[in-house]
């Protein structure tokens, strides 16, 4: 029978340690594990209690060596086939170790696995509703049901409950003690496991309770100092910031909304960092082919372990097959570019017909930025709306225009909102009172998510309108244009945009289109187009006649006469039409 060595580090907090050990005894099969506790010079009676436990292997340090070194001491004396690093503020649950072992041993490619919890970093926590430990155990029973479909591949696992194959440890070595007293040693170990060719699995069919930061929470200032120090050491070792480069953009992925999880899709992420978002896409869509662009070679090296990664600059020529991707995602990218408008136009070439781009873009209309501006401040920072690396700034108006000009359609928006202090609501209300109330929500949105579809149809229609503008009336064939408008339900506003952007003789074009649309009885299209023509010149004879005629056909006689009377003295045909309308 295989044996698991459970390595637990303690530094005071005896009450947590007792609960942890008792839960292991109650919920783990006897004979399948050994418990190794390394105590880092506790002074609260932990050493005495541990000494009285006959089923625990103990190591007592005379000083606090920190988490990595303490764990390494335990690993070195462990005799198990697998090593489980477990925080002493964890309470384990029914089938916890059985489920973790099933995942760990499911493939030779799997190097380590982790559990979910109520309190854990890096997206390993879930919402819970229990109020005590008894209710927690009942809650866990409903989750801890073996299910391989609940195993997600991850680029890192948090070390509070991390099960690792002994052969992997033998291959990559012990925890790196430069991260003492703690933090980021699990990030480092996760990446080392992956670089050795193994996968990491998060087992969402295994729940354990975690109090969280039992050792460091007593001194929050000390904890944050240690966190900052370890983050700096990680960046020095790996040449990228783990906190920034491992984000999983669940909000972006949720915006994809594909109908089935088995659909083969090709996805490109620009600025993919270590590939956390790409890998989560793969977890949801098993047949996804992953591509990424990342300029940081060190973080790109992690992503390249499971995706096709290019070091290309998205503002330069890209070596992708045209019409290839179902999705191109740009999370917090466009604001960093010199020419995001051209980038969007270029990326469209690589999307399939009806392919989509999803982008997240900071909102320069957020009330906090406007408030600072009104107070004379525009201060760049290391992160946030005024990140010093931002080159471009957008409101929703500029975002929509940028996507529209690039040839995208069916734009959908979602606003990410961060908590707003109660006192700031009054300021938002005052802002809204200065302008249109319709923009009040824009003051609350911190970041916009936008999804848009490749729109070759609109681009083709624009080209036809441009060609129509230089064709004589005798040679005019509107059938293709009218067919595109009708068969694809193109809205009048979109047609107006295309005429304004492509036609030189705009009023002539509007009237030609009205004639073609009349044959299809598309009055809802004709009237807006002719109204736009009158906005250019309110006395345009042809437009006034055509508009009057169409309104008469639409049984709007009084309105028809209003337009026709403007030109009654100029044209015999107009007078005849007026007489006909009057008599009827």
Automatic annotation (TrEMBL):
Domain called Glycosyltransferase 2-like: residue spans: 5-171
Keyword set includes Transferase: yes
Segments passing through the bilayer: none
PROSITE patterns the record matches: TPR
Pathway where this protein functions: Cell wall biogenesis; cell wall polysaccharide biosynthesis
Domain of life: Bacteria
Record flagged with keyword Glycosyltransferase: yes
UniProt TPR repeat ranges: 541-574
Record-linked Pfam families: Glycos_transf_2 (PF00535), Methyltransf_23 (PF13489)
Keywords linked to the UniProt accession: Glycosyltransferase, TPR repeat, Transferase
Protein family per UniProt: Belongs to the glycosyltransferase 2 family.
Name by which UniProt lists this protein: Glycosyltransferase
